[in-house]
Amino acid sequence: MSHTRIILVDDHTLFRKGLAELLEQSGSIEVTAFTGNPDEVAMLLKAHRPDVLMLDLNMPGTDGITLMQQLRAAGFDLPVLILTLSEAEDDLARALRAGANGYLLKSMEPDEVVDAILRAQRGETVVAPAMTAKLVKLYDQKGQDANSLLDALTPREREILTHLSRGESNKTIARTLDISHDTVKLHVRHILAKLNLSSRVEAAVFAVEHKVAPGGRGDGR
Fold first, then answer.
1. Domain range 142-209, CATH architecture
2. Identical fold at 4-137 and 142-209?
3. Among candidate residues 206, 97, 90, the one with its CA nearest the CA of residue 146
4. Minimal CB count within 10 Å: which of 3, 19, 46, 214?
5. What separation in angstroms does the CA of 156 have from each of 9, 73, 183, 194, 197?
6. Which residue pairs from 77-81 have beta carbons closer than 8 angstroms and sit at least 24 positions apart in sequence?
7. Residue 214: other Cβ atoms inside 10 A
8. Whether the Cβ atoms of residue 71 and residue 91 lie closer than 8 Å to each other
9. For each of the chain's 221 residues, which pLDDT tens digit applies?
10. Superfamily name with CATH number, domain 4-137
11. 7, 9, 6, 31: which is closest to 20 by C-alpha?
């Protein structure tokens, strides 16, 4: 049985060791390394090549979001999950807009964290259930008419948006629609720009909230 390989970064020694043990007990996760030192993460990524990276939000000298952006700029392209105690709406928004693949809470059950890691590896985006209402609120605050935004999408962009709403990765969408991975990435960038959104998670929630279908308009709720 193949395991999803992760690196865990958290500055609290007892927490990271305890979480590592719980994840290993699931039988589907392999914690290849863990550290409390953000400066070690790039080296660990090169050495272990994990499937998923899990970062604490608040760490001495930096934060998980800033570290994620630095790693992405350095060429590390893998799903990143933010794990935190913070239920603040601003932290959620900042993480997702910076490109995090998920926002998890340390109060979640271990099996929920395991499920989130496995989904992130598949290219899905995940948000702690307790944060869902706040996620929806972020879009309600945009103050723009959904139908007018959706009218700007091409039929292909609308089709891809429905796939995003299912949490599908670019590779999966490309395979399903028989188009290139780069073409999907380009369409996703156009979708985000036209809908005034900043991440795939926002696009997915927007599509679900407004019942977007490939061939028609949303319901404009």
1. Orthogonal Bundle (1.10)
2. no
3. 206
4. 46
5. 39, 30, 11, 13, 18
6. 78/45, 78/50, 78/51, 78/52, 78/53, 79/51, 79/52, 79/53, 79/120, 79/121, 79/123, 80/52, 80/53, 80/54, 80/55, 81/52, 81/53, 81/54, 81/55, 81/116, 81/117, 81/120, 81/126
7. 12
8. no
9. 578 999 999 999 999 999 999 999 999 999 999 999 999 999 999 999 999 999 999 988 889 999 999 999 999 989 999 999 999 888 888 888 788 888 999 999 988 999 999 988 887 778 888 887 777 666 554 545 667 778 888 999 999 999 988 878 888 899 999 999 889 989 998 998 888 777 777 788 788 777 776 655 444 43
10. Response regulator (3.40.50.2300)
11. 31
**Token digits of residue 31:** 């914690």
Query: How many residues does this entry show for the chain?
Result: 221
- Token digits of residue 126: 């995940």
Structure tokens that stand for 140 in this block: 């309600």
What backbone torsions phi and psi does residue 8 show, to the nearest 5 degrees? Answer: -110, 125
Longest dimension (CA), the chain: 52
**Chain position carrying tokens 């929920």:** 112
Sketch the domain layout of the chain as residue ranges: 4-137, 142-209
